[in-house]
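Re: [ENG-882] Designed sequences occasionally contain unexpected residues at chain ends

Forwarding the minimal case from QA. C-alpha cells:
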C-alpha cells in the first residue's frame, strides 16, 4: 500500500506538497526524503509528532527514542493501525516550526515507481532557518508572462528616490 500525504504550513496558503510513501516505510526514511526534497540541513534535530483527530499531539518520534519510539523503528503502517494518520514534521525544534502532513488517501503500489516520491508542489521550499515563510513570486498579481519589463522596473526606482 501507498500513503498519500499533503504537506502544508499552518497559516500559509502558498506552500503545498503532496507525497506518496510506502506504508512499510519508516518515519526515518520519510524524514530523509523530506529533508532532501525541501533542502533542509542534515545536521539539525527533527521530530515527527502524531496527532489525534482533534489535532492534539499524542506521540513524538525523534532520531532517538523520546519514549514513543525512534523514527527508524516506527512505520506509517503501525501509525495507521493506531489511527494516527496526521503528522507534524518539526524541522526547527527551537522555533517550533513544522510542516503538517495530512493523510489524503491510501492506494496500491504502482509497478516501476520508486517511493517515496513527490506528486505535486506549489510555492518555494521554506527556509529552515528563517522566522517566517516568504514566497513573494506567488504573491504578485498576474501571471509570469506579466512580469515587469526593464523599463517598468527602471521607472519604479528612479535616481531621485535612491
Amino acid at each position: 500500500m501507498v500513503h498519500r500525504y499533503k504537506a502544508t504550513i499552518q497559516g500559509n496558503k502558498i506552500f503545498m506538497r503532496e507525497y506518496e510513501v510506502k506504508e512499510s516505510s519508516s518515519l526515518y526514511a520519510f524524514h530523509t526524503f523530506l529533508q532532501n526534497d525541501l533542502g533542509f540541513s542534515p545536521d539539525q534535530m527533527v521530530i515527527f509528532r502524531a496527532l489525534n483527530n482533534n489535532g492534539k499531539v499524542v506521540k513524538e518520534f525523534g532520531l532517538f527514542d523520546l519514549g514513543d519510539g525512534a523514527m527508524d523503528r516506527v512505520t506509517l503502517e503501525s501509525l495507521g493501525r493506531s489511527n494516527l494518520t496526521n503528522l507534524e514534521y518539526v524541522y526547527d525544534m527551537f522555533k517550533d516550526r513544522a510542516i503538517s502532513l495530512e493523510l489524503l488517501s491510501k492506494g496500491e503500489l504502482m509497478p516501476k515507481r520508486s517511493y517515496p516520491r513527490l506528486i505535486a508542489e506549489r510555492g518555494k521550499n521554506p527556509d529552515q532557518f528563517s522566522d517566517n515563510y516568504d514566497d513573494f513570486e506567488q504573491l504578485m498579481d498576474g501571471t509570469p508572462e506579466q512580469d515587469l519589463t526593464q523599463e517598468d522596473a527602471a521607472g519604479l526606482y528612479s535616481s531621485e528616490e535612491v
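QA comment: On inspection the terminal residues look reasonable. The beta strands are 2-8, 16-22, 47-51, 57-62, 86-92, 97-107, 117-122. Proposing we downgrade this to a documentation issue.
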